[in-house]
Write a structure and sequence with these properties.
Chain lengths: 310, 264, 392
């Protein structure tokens, strides 16, 4: 009995002390995650970026640790810049397409589907995240092949001219869907779609029913309610999902090697510079592209409220 | 009556779901093909043989076990650290709050390859041997961000007056946390935990750099896919993973759905 | 306040990380005798090089070794030479690596591998004399590894398309032309996407433009290098895609209508085994090839088991089985007779007689391998290859 009171008293005193010292509470709560994220992650980022100020010794292939801007000079070549542009264009296209495809399903699930159906949809959207990314990408290779599944369907439906037309467009077409930018685009959209659906779904769920009722009470037609109430509240969700699709496309080095016409992407370039030629300084400098691009994107996304909706 | 409405939306919803699941169906189909290296369409024959081969393969079991252990540890770390950070940031305005939010989200906002090579350089500079823990560190780094997002979002929807009421009723900080706050954020913990577990389980990009000699399941699949003689085995493994994760997903969905509802 | 602490912490971590620099590898020379096995050995190898019967029980050359020596073998598969270099340089987990000539010299120069005492390898004399002092592992009078297998890249083609006129020249993958089936080759051929492939372009130039004076496709001066890049730029418009891993390439031949490409006998064997209409040839210009050497890490954690494996790796049975599996040529010529899997004709089929026409992979160096003049170094090959594949 006495012990209980003392323990309870002890907890009381500690929590009281913490309540009175918000600063201390903050440090205690934030301390561990802080050390992890800033120390481990931040420290290794800094270590990586510092590598970009070294150079690679031609002969022995080891890193020469004298500070220089030479590697940065090697970075801004025509070919590297075109890699960055190509990747950014693809990431943008993938993001826009994902948003367009994801919105209707998220909207329908939240607004019109019954409880049961909503759970089913949720499960169906989560399952792809659990089935191996690699195996699914390889199966897309079969689906998009010249003698593969999609072609078989198109052939049966007599829509060959559509497919040939799409493939003959310069820049996105190619000899076969699986060796074209168009095919790559389809696979990227497919793989990142759940990442876009979930945040939009979450954002739409947060729209209180009372808002919609109030809007109707004030005389708005369904479309007006959508445009003026629902859509602005959904934007943070779209922005949050777009952070995922954009950054994942920017850094992926696996899909471009399986599907596509072998044109280099940023993720692949970084991967091959650090691995292929052991040129860690150049790889580190190359990360400048995705970091800056994502930095800009994060700033824009924050303006759209994405951080409240992640 | 209501069923005829929103036909366009319904069609597009089912179309998207079909799009999401069609390749998975193909994966399942080719787990039965008789070909062993290159896949043709349609498959020349069907067989159950690959299931036996996969079952007997020790490498697969070891990789599966490692993936599960890594994901479990990474998720646990993420939930703890993520909740702590979310609690710190919630309703307190302190200098650098925005920076903290940004920094925690950085591992998922920056492409995985950057995280991967940054951690790898740090690990080799520090002379740390690659092991289970280096993989966990890599995974926990982005998992914390996911847990943080989910918990912080949920906390934003929780009224602070609940905590004040609890304190008024005489509960100390710990009791308030356990009996009031925790039940409120439970759905976020489950959702965040599930997502973090899923992402860790299927992670290949960062793991390639932090794993050394170890093989998680995605790494095993990747190495199998360049050893062309047993390709359907990877399909079998993928199918198996979907099957066994079906139950936890359903459970988790149940648990989060039941506590749905907006406040205010 | 927090901001300042944040900065300080970050800088502290970075300083500490930078301060804990690399340990210098100190080796007091190679082993002078093989001691007790340490119970394990780990090897970085190409896919298919070290089989334990997992894929086909007839192909197993590990189980016996483990039983005889008690050294448990673990294999880390790498897809490219460069991955192998990276794995060996960045960690001390691995004992051995089956390095091709474009990795071996980098490993030697970087101090990542140590000299091998060939006196401790009892079967050393059985190694093909042409390989015993090959320049990609024999430097300054020291041996840095034991040869394992060699082979050449081949031109793999679809027999249905080429019919009675199989291709005889690499031009079929470098330049646009009409194939025997009446269709253009554009979008139906492939090329390897490694930077070392520039040497194949240079090899092609040796026949088509002898005035450039190329004698060694890996030692290219600036003009020769640029000419090779031009060949590759032309090729860029002809290829379906660049292949990187064997599986993707085989898929392309099976269901994408690709009909010709540079390849390895490994893929040819597998496709033929699956019944596809595939054959291969070494064209008249010759071919690039690879000669792999098992090398020992400078800080190998299990040196005794490693030496035991080195000896085991050149026994005739293993050599024959591996050659049959991979489509390569053994380094121990005793393997060419009496091996069931390889058969007595196997060595010739796999190209034993082509040794002199093959230009083995080696890492291009700025000093033209000591022959004088100025050559383009490997890291430029990488950036140039990335640029060409990217369309520049």
């Amino acid at each position: 009995m006495v012990t209980e009171t003392t323990t309870a008293g002890g907890m009381q005193r500690i929590s009281g002390a913490l309540h009175r010292r918000p600063g201390l509470r903050l440090v205690l709560l934030l301390g561990l995650p802080f050390i992890w994220i800033v120390g481990v992650y931040g420290g290794s980022l800094v270590a990586l970026l510092s590598q970009s100020f070294f150079t690679l010794d031609d002969f022995s292939g080891t890193v020469d640790r004298t500070l220089t801007l030479e590697t940065w000079g090697d970075l801004f070549t025509d070919s590297n810049i075109s890699i960055a542009i190509r990747t950014t264009v693809m990431a943008t296209a993938v993001t826009i397409a994902s948003a367009i495809i994801a919105f209707p399903i998220a909207y329908y699930t939240v607004r019109y589907a019954g409880r049961r159906l909503r759970a089913v949809f949720f499960i169906l959207v989560l399952i792809p995240l659990w089935s191996s990314y690699l195996v699914r990408v390889y199966s897309w290779k079969l689906i998009l092949a010249r003698e593969g599944i999609l072609f078989w369907f198109v052939d049966k439906l007599g829509l060959n001219f559509l497919l040939d037309g799409a493939l003959s467009v310069r820049g996105i077409g190619g000899p076969s869907l699986s060796a074209s930018a168009l095919g790559q685009f389809i696979v990227f959209v497919y793989i990142w779609l759940p990442f876009m659906i979930l945040p939009i779904h979450a954002a739409l769920e947060r729209v209180p029913q009372s808002y919609l009722e109030a809007s109707a009470d004030l005389g708005a037609r369904p479309f007006q309610t959508f445009r003026n109430v629902i859509w602005p509240l959904a934007i943070p969700g779209i922005a949050a999902g777009s952070i995922f699709t954009f950054s994942l496309t920017l850094g992926d080095y696996i899909i471009p090697t399986i599907i596509g016409d072998s044109s280099p992407f940023v993720g692949w370039a970084i991967y091959s510079y650090q691995g292929v030629s052991g040129n860690l300084p150049l790889a580190a400098a190359f990360t400048f592209f995705p970091i800056v691009i994502m930095g800009i994107y994060l700033y824009l996304a924050r303006r759209a409220g994405a951080f409240e909706a992640l | 009556m209501i069923k005829r409405k929103h036909l366009g939306l319904r069609i597009s919803t089912w179309a998207v779901l079909l799009f999401l699941h069609f390749p998975i169906a193909i994966v399942f189909l080719y787990a039965f093909t008789t070909e062993s290296s290159s896949f043709k369409f349609p498959p020349p024959g069907l067989t159950f043989d690959w299931f036996g081969v996969a079952w007997n393969n020790g490498e697969v079991r070891a990789a599966l076990s490692l993936s599960l252990r890594v994901a479990a540890m990474a998720t646990a770390i993420a939930l703890i650290l993520g909740t702590m950070a979310a609690a710190a940031v919630w309703r307190r305005r302190f200098f650098g709050r925005e920076a903290v939010s940004l920094f925690i989200v950085l591992p998922i906002a920056l492409p995985g390859i950057i995280t991967g090579i940054a951690l790898r350089s740090a690990i080799s500079i520090g002379g740390i041997p690659f092991s289970y823990w280096t993989i966990v560190i890599g995974h926990a780094t982005f998992a914390v961000a996911i847990a943080y997002n989910n918990v912080a979002a949920r906390m934003r929807r929780t009224s602070p007056s609940l905590l004040e009421a609890s304190a008024d009723l005489g509960a100390n900080g710990w009791q308030t946390f356990r009996h009031v706050l925790l039940p409120q954020i439970r759905p976020a913990l489950i959702a965040g935990g599930m997502l973090a577990f899923a992402l860790s389980f299927d992670e290949i990009i960062v793991t390639t750099f932090t794993a050394g000699n170890q093989q998680t399941l995605p790494i095993w699949i990747f190495s199998s896919l360049v050893r062309p003689r047993q390709r359907p085995m990877t399909n079998v493994v993928a199918m198996f993973v979907v099957a066994i994760t079906f139950v936890p997903i359903v459970l988790a969905t149940r648990l989060t759905r039941n506590t749905e509802g907006t406040t205010g | 306040m927090i901001k300042r602490r944040f900065l300080a912490l970050v800088m502290l971590v970075a300083l500490v990380a930078a301060a804990c620099g690399d340990d210098d590898a100190t080796t007091g020379g190679p082993l002078t005798e093989i001691g007790e096995g340490e119970g394990a050995v780990s090897i970085v190898a190409w896919a298919g090089y070290i089989e334990e019967g997992a894929v086909d029980p007839a192909y197993d050359w590990v189980t016996q070794f483990e039983a005889d020596t008690g050294c448990n073998v673990t294999v880390k598969t790498a897809g490219t030479s460069d991955e192998m270099v990276a794995l060996m340089t960045e960690s001390t987990d691995y004992d051995l690596v089956t390095a091709s000539g474009d990795a071996s010299l980098r490993l030697i120069a970087g101090g990542t591998v140590q000299e091998v005492n060939t006196d401790l390898i009892l079967s050393w004399d059985k190694v093909d004399p042409r390989l015993q002092e090959a320049p990609w592992h024999f430097v300054d009078g020291k041996h840095y590894g034991v040869p394992y297998q060699w082979g050449s890249n081949v031109l793999m083609y679809n027999t249905e398309v080429f019919g009675d006129t199989p291709p005889t020249s690499w031009s079929v993958v470098f330049e646009e032309q009409t194939l025997p089936d009446g269709e253009s080759n554009v979008g139906r051929v492939e090329a390897y996407d490694g930077p070392i492939y520039i040497a194949d372009a240079a090899l092609y130039l040796m026949s088509t433009h002898p005035e450039l004076g190329i004698t060694d496709p890996y030692a290219l001066n600036r003009d020769q290098f640029n000419a090779a890049l031009d060949v590759m730029r032309t090729q860029r418009d002809v290829v379906f895609r660049y292949w990187h891993d064997a599986y993707v390439q085989m898929d392309d031949f099976t269901n994408e209508g690709v009909v010709a490409s540079s390849s390895w006998p490994f893929q040819v064997n597998i496709l033929q085994f699956g019944g596809a209409p595939i054959a291969s040839v070494v064209p008249e210009e010759g071919a690039t090839g690879w000669a792999d050497t098992t090398m020992l890490h400078a800080n190998a954690p299990h040196p005794n088991c490693a030496y035991k494996w080195l000896e085991w790796s050149i026994n005739p049975t293993l050599q024959g089985d591996l050659a049959a599996w991979f489509g390569s040529v053994p380094v121990n010529l005793e393997a060419c007779t009496g091996n069931e899997l390889l058969t007595d004709a196997g060595c010739d089929t796999n190209g034993l007689g082509n040794f002199d026409q093959i230009h083995f992979w080696k890492t291009p160096q700025a000093d033209c391998f000591g022959l004088g003049g100025e050559c383009v170094a490997y890291h430029e090959w990488v950036t140039a290859s990335v640029a060409v594949i990217g369309g520049r």
